[in-house]
């Protein structure tokens, strides 16, 4: 297939269409599971213990996600996903049994932790495989864009699907249904991945040629992709985004309840995702003639600028406007982050690197949620909005300083030398040099 095929033709390719479909279904099911689990656990154990169990699962998935990605990098995607998938399906089924049989609450907690530890990182596995599915940088950008847009759509579909299941079925049966669908989805992914030849481990010759010097190997052994300056630059804007996500998730329910305007809560929480879907579609079809690092900086600035004004957002309509404006840049930032991982991070660390893209926002999300929660508990909404604005201002300052240093570095380049717009790709990387999408 030519690299300049139209977007519709590329996305309609059976291989791409099948993988995008299984990605959408798997993400939606994984996002539904915590919701139905919380409600089903609340019946026998109460919401206090149910929240501890549910929150522990989310925390383990976020914090230990990169380690699960490292397993895929070291062992190979295909072999690791089979083992992890079987273990996760078995443990999630046992969680359902523990709820139905009303086992002691701590047994459900242990099973949930074990299930989270073995949960197969399907998102990272798919994103690492896109380069093997399509040809050329433009097609790679297109499928990453479609993938990220579908992920945002999944965030909209998951609460709706969970609500429908809980209305149609008792909570315990709703969760059992979700677990059954989860088992089917993982099985289907493994079959599809094998059919399309995904997840093959690089040949020993390729691994040997890409092996860094001994000092770098020691750093990589402990830090993985975080040992690379490029990875640190990739996750910096994502940390800022995670702070805003986490703060808004706590602020909006408390603020709307304080104003007796609960009808605003759902739309406000959806504003970032709505903006993300629109921005992702526009960015995926846009031909922007600039290098990835420059685009990443500009997109990070685009997200941070409206968020810097959150301290003014006492009227709910203004809060909604600022959230949707920032949301326009969320999906493009993620798209560029995944493209930068694919282009700059060594193939032997890409699963872990792809997971760090999401995990970095989750970690920042959890930390800032605690801070904002303490402020809204005192009804100090002005301070809460100011904290979120300050986080965005830090992200804006980082992006502007980064741009200044990049321009200054370009000014010192010798004639004929490409401008240094970001951390240099790994010299041992076997991928071709980046060409502007």
From TrEMBL:
InterPro entries: MFS, MFS_trans_sf. Keywords: Membrane, Transmembrane, Transmembrane helix. It holds the Pfam family MFS_1. The chain crosses the membrane at residues 47-67, 79-99, 105-128, 174-192, 230-252, 264-284, 296-313, 319-341, 353-377, 383-405. The keyword DNA repair does not apply. Residues 414-437 have a biased composition (Low complexity). Residues 200-219, 413-437 are annotated as: Disordered. This is MFS transporter. It comes from Saccharothrix xinjiangensis. The lineage of its organism: Bacteria, Bacillati, Actinomycetota, Actinomycetes, Pseudonocardiales.
